[in-house]
């Protein structure tokens, strides 16, 4: 049976998914946005819903949040409690322990699952495998100055500190810092550089421990509709949907 998917959020990420629709192993049956007109541009055959009740009245297997942290807090637990699994792309919402706990409780109650895409990075299977054995975990992010809201002529270190602090100062980095920290079960140290020579968004993850040393580097191009988002992040949401519906799993 084909996976029945509902999407929450009809912005940039939804438009990328829509443009790659033929690669989705499943059918988008429902869509919802606080700005309902935004949904006109994507998945024309899906039912446009105005409330969470209407959205959940459409039979579905997976709800895909591609909206905002607020949407995760507003709808996440209820969706899971009703037995529908949830893909969370606004992973920064889970840096707050209470939100994470309430989603996990609801997932237990509804016998559903929470899926977190690796987003603008990857290799999180390896990071998870060594959780509890990591002595040092660092994420180095390099972006064009405009993406970080600054104007500098030379490469400059804008921030160095723990992920929890980085996401407050640079919310646009929130998802990478959050997903790596969750996979490692340890707060990553983050360095953020503004680099006028950077063509895209680069993230380097360095993890060290008794297993050795991992260096994972991602030189991402920006997405067609929103330069602040890496194209890889949207493709990773698509891949996670296909992971849910897949019969063969590559990890
Ligand atoms: N995991 C990752 O690596 C990753 C990468 C990129 C973006 N994201 C996250 O995905 C989300 C969407 O990104 P985008 O670029 O598509 O943003 P966007 O602003 O282009 O689109 C978001 C859409 O969601 C709607 N929306 C926001 N809050 C809502 C709510 N509470 N209920 C219903 N609709 C709501 C907005 O009206 C808008 O149409 C963001 O939170 C972003 O942080 C995650």
CATH architecture of the largest domain: 3-Layer(aba) Sandwich
Return the CATH topology of the largest domain: Rossmann fold
Alpha-carbon distance between the termini?
Answer: 23 Å
- Report the top-level CATH class of the largest domain: Alpha Beta
Q: What structural class do the secondary elements suggest?
A: alpha/beta
Number of strands: 11
Strand order of the largest sheet: 3-2-1-4-5-6
Helical percentage: 25-40%
Q: What about the largest sheet?
A: 6 strands, parallel
Query: Per the principal axes of the C-alpha atoms, what is the gross shape?
Result: globular
**Uncertain regions spanning at least 5 consecutive residues:** none
The count of domains is 2
Number of alpha- plus pi-helical segments: 8
Proportion of strand residues? 25-35%
| Corresponding CATH superfamily of the largest domain | NAD(P)-binding Rossmann-like Domain
Using only C-alpha atoms, the radius of gyration works out to 18 Å
- H/E order of the elements? EHEEHEHEHEHEEHHEEEH
**Which hetero compounds are present in the coordinates?**
nicotinamide-adenine-dinucleotide
Mean pLDDT: 93
């Amino acid at each position: 049976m084909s996976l029945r998917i509902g999407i929450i959020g009809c912005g940039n990420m939804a438009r990328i998914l829509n443009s790659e629709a033929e690669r989705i192993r499943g059918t988008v049956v429902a869509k919802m946005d606080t700005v309902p007109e935004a949904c006109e541009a994507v998945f024309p055959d899906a039912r446009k819903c105005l409330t969470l009740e209407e959205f959940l009245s459409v039979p579905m297997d997976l709800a895909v949040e591609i909206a905002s942290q607020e949407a995760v807090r507003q709808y996440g637990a209820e969706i899971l409690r009703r037995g529908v699994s949830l893909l969370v792309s606004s992973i920064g919402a889970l840096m707050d322990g209470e939100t994470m706990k309430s989603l996990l409780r609801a997932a237990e109650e509804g016998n559903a699952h929470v899926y977190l895409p690796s987003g603008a990075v990857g290799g999180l299977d390896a990071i998870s495998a060594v959780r509890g054995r990591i002595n040092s975990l660092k994420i180095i992010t390099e972006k064009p100055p405009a993406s970080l809201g600054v104007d500098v002529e030379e490469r400059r270190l804008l921030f160095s500190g723990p992920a929890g602090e980085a996401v407050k100062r640079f919310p646009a980095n929130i998802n990478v810092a959050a997903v790596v920290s969750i996979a490692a079960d340890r707060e990553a140290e983050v360095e953020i550089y503004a680099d006028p020579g950077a063509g895209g968004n680069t993230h380097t993850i360095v993890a060290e421990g008794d297993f050795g040393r991992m260096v994972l580097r991602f030189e991402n191009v920006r997405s067609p509709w929103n330069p602040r988002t890496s194209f890889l992040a949207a493709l990773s949401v698509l891949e996670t949907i296909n992971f849910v519906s897949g019969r063969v799993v590559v990890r």
